[in-house]
Specification:
single chain; about 525 residues; alpha/beta; 2-enoyl-CoA Hydratase, Chain A, domain 1; 8-stranded mixed beta sheet; 7-stranded mixed beta sheet; 19 helices; about 40% helix; binds hexanoyl-coenzyme A
Length: about 525
């Protein structure tokens, strides 16, 4: 072969690899409303930035007739490229080759880029669309999964790991995405479950569809497994690009500080009247968030799950921040099992990747009742407490209204090493609300008053007395638990100035192997 022929051979091989499992299977993939592995990468990465590795890899299996059937790339496209000019590593499972099922060599390809992502300190994005373990390869495939799991674990807290689920993801295969930081699913074309509908029917007799068992909606609203839902794959891939714009490349870097045209000292008069005077009236805390962040823009994480707490990425003065906010619009913003778990994981992610935390507090306490107690609210609530207490990133807290009881301590209070704690004049920082407090403190006396009118008058008087003492931020400010009471309309400026001041913060944890967060 002369050099021209050799080059021709290379080009032909590349073309062949790009066809994956063949044009027919590509067509079938498109008919399902899905893109191919390479088409997905093209949308995800900056144009022309993708460098593919291991295009010429094929499987080594000689059982069940596989010695006669093999495809270049072996069902997964791997390599690196850039997103907004920053390096990322990516693998994209190719459903057109043996249903994207995982073989020994397939796993080795993924492990290779995971190892390199760790060496250079760059995020890893996995696009999942697979029938699971390649059945013909048996135990080698299981070993391949475990190799990936181990790398997911080692990479946790070192580089951001993002999983997109664009098709089936079942059995033990779900655990690689579950070990990563964020899971994104597409509506109607993706599903995740440990055991599918058929097994559920056999074992428990339950009759349930694939969508109802593990579709995007279920994982976004009920299980909390998925962090983001996209209408289609293109939207999902663009969401991943957006998500990365808030994240550093690795745990040793600061998150990307960008210029902003939004004035730092922007005053928002609307904030002065946004919180209703009546502490029992709801409002939407995302209205507060959008008024204080750069360009009114934020990216909510798990927006459909545990809606009584909002977790979101935003920029303030060009700096990425993680925002945690009680949401009075749902369940009065109470802390319960799901909201505690949701916020705890978010706080820990931000802390691992040097993203400052901005906490907006309006919390009436923990949700009472046997359902919560039997479900272990003690342990789950402790997760959020632990996460805040352990976090060493800059922590700025603003109490907007209620901050009652144990929930007050949990929500990034001063004593959990909150760095700068502000309160609005509407804040009420107390052990509990006035009604509850009077019931406890005055219960015996109240029961002795027989005349209903006199009783009501006595209760009202005592509630007023309690409110005057505690339904304000000044009692807490008196002790220095609140650093300053601020005018709501200045909140954006005050938070950004606080974050700038704290930018050089250094706080260490005592030496230990690792902490033992109540899991
Ligand atoms: C080998 C597989 C495969 C697999 C699919 N294919 N799954 N080949 N191993 N696990 C092949 C099919 O033979 C077919 O080949 C092509 O991929 C497309 O599959 P279809 O069934 O035609 O597609 P579809 O109707 O869309 O159904 C997709 C599917 C189904 C729901 C994923 O294929 C399926 O149920 N597959 C088996 C899933 C499974 O049981 N996996 C093992 C689970 S255990 P042709 O040549 O016709 O194109 C597991 C353990 C992991 O994963 C443990 C980790 C710790």
């Amino acid at each position: 072969m002369n050099s021209q022929e050799k080059i021709k051979e290379l080009i032909e091989k590349r073309e062949l690899a790009k066809q994956g499992g063949g044009l027919k299977r590509i067509e079938s993939q498109h008919q399902k409303g899905k893109l191919t592995a390479r088409e997905r990468i093209e949308i995800l990465l900056d144009e022309g930035s993708f460098e593919e590795y291991d295009m010429f890899v094929t499987h080594r299996c000689t059982d069940f007739g596989l010695e006669k059937e093999s495809y270049l790339s072996d069902g997964v496209v791997t390599g690196h490229g850039t997103i907004d000019g920053r390096v990322v590593y990516v693998f994209s499972q190719d459903f057109t080759v043996f249903g994207g099922s995982l073989s020994e060599t397939f796993a080795q390809k993924i492990c290779k880029i995971m190892d390199q992502a760790m060496k250079v300190g760059a995020p890893l994005i996995g696009i999942n669309d697979s029938g699971g373990a390649r059945i013909q390869e048996g135990v080698k495939s299981l070993a391949g999964y475990a190799e990936i799991f181990e790398r997911n674990i080692m990479a946790s807290g070192v580089i951001p790991q993002i999983s997109a689920i664009f098709g089936p993801c079942a059995g033990g295969a779900v655990y690689s995405p579950a070990l990563t930081d964020f899971i994104l699913m597409t509506e109607s074309t993706s599903y995740m479950f440990v055991t599918g509908p058929k097994v559920a029917k056999t074992v428990t007799g339950e009759n349930i569809s694939t969508e109802d068992l593990g579709g995007a909606e279920v994982h976004a609203t009920k299980s909390g497994v998925s962090h983001f839902v996209a209408e289609d794959e293109e939207e999902g891939l663009l969401m991943i690009r957006k998500l990365l714009s808030y994240l550093p490349q690795n745990n040793l870097e600061e998150p990307p500080l960008g210029p902003t045209d939004d004035p730092i000292e922007r005053i928002e008069d609307a904030l002065n009247d946004l919180v209703p005077v009546d502490p029992n009236k709801p409002y939407d805390v995302t209205d507060v968030i959008q008024l204080i962040v750069d360009d009114h823009e934020f990216l909510e994480v798990q927006s459909k799950y545990a809606k009584n707490i909002v977790t979101a990425f935003a920029k303030m003065g060009g700096m990425p921040v993680g925002i945690v906010a009680n949401q009075p619009k749902f369940l009065a913003g109470v802390l319960d099992i799901n909201s505690s778990r949701k916020a705890a994981r978010f706080v820990r992610f931000c802390d691992a990747f040097n993203i400052p935390l901005v906490t907006l507090v309006d919390v009436p306490g923990f949700l009472p009742g046997s359902a919560q107690e039997y479900g272990g609210i003690i342990i789950h609530g402790a997760k959020l407490l632990f996460a805040y207490g352990e976090a060493t990133v800059p922590k700025v807290t603003v109490t907007l209204r209620k901050s009652y009881g144990g929930a007050h301590d949990v929500m990034s209070s001063k004593q959990l090493r909150g760095d700068i704690n502000y309160a609005w004049p509407s804040a009420e920082i107390a052990v509990m609300g006035a009604t509850g407090a009077v019931e406890v403190l005055e219960g015996r006396k109240i029961s002795q008053i027989e005349d209903p009118e006199e009783k009501a008058k006595y209760i009202a008087e005592k509630e007023k007395e309690y409110k005057n003492k505690f339904a304000n931020p000044y009692e807490a400010a008196k002790y220095g638990y609140i650093d300053d009471v601020i005018e709501p309309r200045n909140t954006r400026f005050r938070i950004i100035r606080a974050l700038k001041t704290l930018a050089t913060k250094k706080e260490l944890l005592p030496p230990k192997k690792h902490s033992n967060i109540p899991l």
